[in-house]
Amino acid sequence: MATIDKRITKIPAVSELITTVRDSLGSALRARVIGPNGDARSQELMDTPGPRWFDEDRPVRRVHSDASMFIGGLRSLMIQTLHPLAMAGVANHSNYKTDPWGRLQRTADFLASTTFGPADEAQKIIDRIKHVHGFVNGTASDGRPYSANDPHLLRWVHVVEVDSFLTSHQRYGKEPLDQAGRDGYVADMALIAAKLDVPNPPTTEKELSEQLLSFHDELMSTAESRDALKYLM
What we know:
Elements: H1 2-9, H2 12-34, H3 38-47, H4 59-64, H5 68-80, H6 84-93, H7 102-116, H8 119-133, E1 137-139, E2 145-147, H9 151-172, H10 179-195, H11 205-213, H12 223-232
Antiparallel strand pairs: 1-2
Helix pairs in contact: 3-7, 5-9, 7-8, 9-10, 9-11
């Protein structure tokens, strides 16, 4: 069956159809993720002179300029809903029901600014996020307190994002990274994480996997997480 499938995809008309459908789906997902002003914002960042946090040859630039990022962003949001305290913050302090893609668009802008933008613009968006985090706190439905400034939750969000972007890039990206590149990407993202006060962010792929697995016993499907997924899907 696999052999037949491969032969079919080599037929010019079929190959052209697959490419058309893939490009159409990719464009639709990209538009959802970056929002209506995403292209203009990206061009503005690229055109603004000044030093950057990352040189052009850094792995973070390769990963974040690939279309696989859009898949990684969606994967990240879906997995993050599995932590009840992180999900409580989203449920009680965002408008995901009326604007389910808004958070993903803000994440895309954050990553574009810190990866490609001038250093002063990158720091501004870091400061803005830290300011907003100061207002995100409360009590989850299970009675536990939560805060967006909780170092443990900051780490959860960070490792899920990095794992999602890296996994999607390796699976769907045009130029998958070798081991040195994967470690380099995790280390690049650790620089950004440290500026957001994430404690001891992972700097290698191995450390990333270990930190992600350390959250295993805290994760569960809840009514809030299922509700969020319904709006995302």
